[in-house]
Write a structure and sequence with these properties.
Elements: H1 3-26, E1 32-38, H2 40-50, H3 53-57, E2 60-66, H4 70-78, E3 84-89, H5 90-100, E4 104-112, E5 116-118, E6 133-137, H6 140-152, E7 157-158, E8 172-174, E9 180-184, H7 189-192, E10 198-201, H8 203-208, H9 213-216, E11 219-220, E12 231-237, H10 244-254, H11 256-266, E13 271-272, H12 277-281
Parallel strand pairs: 1-2, 1-3, 6-9, 6-10
Antiparallel strand pairs: 3-12, 4-12, 4-13, 5-10, 5-11, 7-8
C-alpha cells in the first residue's frame, strides 16, 4: 500500500471517529437551553424537572442556577444572567417591579406555600400575651403578607384597602394585644424563633429550618381569593415571555411525575395552583 493511500485511510477513519463521538455527545445537550434561577427547595424541584423524561420529550435542556436573595435573583433575570426564575410570589414580583422600575412578567403559576405563625413559647394562637414581640420579614411583600395573616388569626385589624404588596405595620388600625414588631431578614426566621414570641415564616424558609407549616405552625394561610397574591409564579423578562420553551416550563411543573415528587419530598406544603396569569391580575 502506498503512503498516500495509508494516510488517506487514516484521515477517513479519524473523520468517522469524530462524527461518531459528536453524535454520542449530543444526547445530553439536545434541545433549547433554558437557565432557571432558583433557590432552596424550589431549586431542588427544578433540578428534578431538568433530569426528567418530560423535559427531554419537550426538547429542553434546563440548567438550574442557584442564587441567594430575591432581589439578586430578579436582578439576574432582568440582566439576562438567567432566563426565568422560580422562587417568588405574585405580590413579591409586583413589589420588585415597582421598587426597581423593572418590567419582569409572570408566565405561569406554580403553587401556594402557606406562610405560618410559629412560636416556641406559645402553644395556642389564642394564648398570645399582651405586648408579645412579633418578627416579620423585612421585605415589602412578605411584611404585608405576614400582617394579613396576623389579621386572619384575629390578632390585629388592618385598614380598609390594605395593600397586600406594600402594606406596613403603620396600616394597623386595631392592635388589642399591643403587639410589638421586629423586622428580620426573611431567611432567618427559624433561627430567631427562640428570641421572639411569634415569628412569621414563609414555607420555603420553614422547610429549610426543619419546620412543616401544616404540623408545626400555630396558624397558617389557607387557599382563597384572599391569598392569591401569595401564589408563586415563574417570572421572566417581557422580551422572553412568549418564548415557547419558557412557556413549556409551567406544563412541566404541573405534570404528574413532578407533582408526585413534590408530594413525596415536601409533605403537602406546596399546594399546586394551575391558574392563568389573568387570575392574579383580577
Amino acid at each position: 500500500m502506498s503512503k498516500r493511500k495509508l494516510w488517506g485511510g487514516l484521515a477517513l477513519g479519524l473523520v468517522l471517529m469524530l462524527v461518531v463521538a459528536g453524535c454520542g455527545s449530543k444526547s445530553s445537550g439536545d434541545g433549547e437551553k433554558i437557565v432557571v434561577g432558583s433557590m432552596g427547595s424550589d431549586a431542588q424541584i427544578w433540578k428534578h424537572i431538568a433530569e426528567s423524561q418530560a423535559a427531554k420529550d419537550a426538547k429542553l435542556n434546563i440548567v438550574v442556577k442557584e442564587i441567594n436573595g430575591g432581589v439578586e435573583m430578579n436582578n439576574a433575570t432582568k440582566e439576562g444572567e438567567v432566563d426565568v426564575n422560580a422562587f417568588q410570589s405574585w405580590a413579591y414580583l409586583v413589589s420588585y417591579n415597582k421598587d426597581s422600575n423593572a418590567n419582569l412578567v409572570a408566565v405561569a403559576t406554580t403553587y401556594l406555600e402557606p406562610m405560618g405563625i410559629y412560636s416556641q413559647k406559645i402553644k395556642d394562637i389564642q394564648e398570645v400575651p399582651d405586648g408579645a414581640l412579633v418578627a416579620l420579614a423585612d421585605n415589602p411583600a412578605n411584611t404585608a403578607r405576614g400582617l394579613s395573616l396576623l389579621q386572619a388569626a384575629g390578632l390585629i385589624k388592618l385598614k380598609d384597602g390594605f395593600d397586600l404588596g406594600t402594606g406596613t405595620a403603620s396600616d394597623i388600625v386595631d392592635n388589642p394585644k399591643n403587639l410589638n414588631f421586629k423586622l428580620i431578614d426573611d431567611t432567618t426566621g427559624p433561627r430567631v424563633i427562640q428570641d421572639v414570641d411569634l415569628v412569621l415564616i414563609s414555607n420555603t424558609v420553614a422547610l429549610e429550618g426543619g419546620l412543616n407549616v401544616l404540623k408545626d405552625s400555630l396558624f397558617h394561610e389557607e387557599i382563597s381569593v384572599d391569598t392569591k397574591n401569595s401564589i408563586n409564579i415563574l417570572a421572566t423578562t417581557a422580551e422572553k415571555q412568549n418564548d415557547p420553551g419558557i412557556l413549556k416550563l409551567g406544563e412541566l411543573y404541573h405534570n404528574e411525575d413532578t407533582q408526585k415528587y413534590i408530594e413525596q419530598e415536601f409533605g403537602g406544603t406546596k399546594v399546586p395552583v394551575d391558574k392563568p396569569i389573568s387570575y392574579l391580575q383580577e
